[in-house]
């Protein structure tokens, strides 16, 4: 075994399943940084530990996404209490609604939240997401909204966020930013990518003038045809794998 491989060897305190999940989640933080979806040290991607119903992995509070690695991800329980040891705390503001979703949404194993300018800008619009472009046309009946109540540090808002989300995988927190709920990292990433692209195009097109709407029947058809939701075409797994190769080439230290 080469020195560099030994450097990335699984520490014995982690099961193989947990270590693989840690590597994938750390890669996802690096991918978010690459996509410029990071928010200094803020925002979160949380993931259920495989085989551990009430344990979740989340970013260490204080580190940039480019500094997140498999071993410095923090394991917490449903209340956000750190399990075992961590050199870093977590940001309680973020885990408030992540924990509610993980706890109550069936298959809600992965939760992503960003403040990218275009998604947040669309969250500030009275009409919200407009089904007027190639990307948003793939999101028909997948988007819910939640009224702004301030910074999400109060546990009681978690239940209302959950009620607002209903069975939708995309929740636009009004005046704040989107939350994506996925069964796994790849699926959540594919949705986050779609939402970001939809909002970027919406911001650009609305800035130019009157936007041409797409008939509802076509929007429904686009969503049904979307490769992002079709397991036959990867449903996000193929794009996640490609992005993982990209960050691997840039800096493989996420596996540390
Ligand atoms: Zn936020």
What does this protein look like?
The structure is a single chain. This protein is an alpha+beta fold and 256 residues long. The chain has a single domain, classed as L-fuculose-1-phosphate Aldolase, CATH 3.40.225. It is 41% helix and 11% strand. The protein has helices spanning 3-7, 16-34, 92-104, 117-124, 155-165, 185-208, 216-225, 237-250, and strands at residues 44-48, 56-58, 74-76, 110-113, 143-146, 170-173, 177-182. A hairpin with a 7-residue loop joins strand 1 (44-48) and strand 2. The radius of gyration is 18 Å and the shape is globular. The relative contact order is 0.15. The protein binds zinc ion (ZN). Zinc ion (ZN) binds at residues 43, 113, 115, 176-177. The site of zinc ion has 5 residues, from loops. Residues 23-203 form the Class II aldolase/adducin N-terminal domain. It comes from Amphritea opalescens.
**Alpha-carbon Rg, integer:** 18 Å
Return the structural class: alpha+beta
Number of strands: 7
Shape: globular
Chemical compounds bound to the protein: zinc ion
| Structural domain tally | 1
**Mean pLDDT score, rounded?**
93
Q: Could you describe the largest sheet, including whether it forms a barrel?
A: 7 strands, mixed
Distance N to C terminus: 16 Å
CATH architecture: 3-Layer(aba) Sandwich
* Top-tier CATH class: Alpha Beta
The CATH topology label is: L-fuculose-1-phosphate Aldolase
User: What pattern of helices and strands is seen along the backbone?
Assistant: HHEEEHEHEHEEHHH
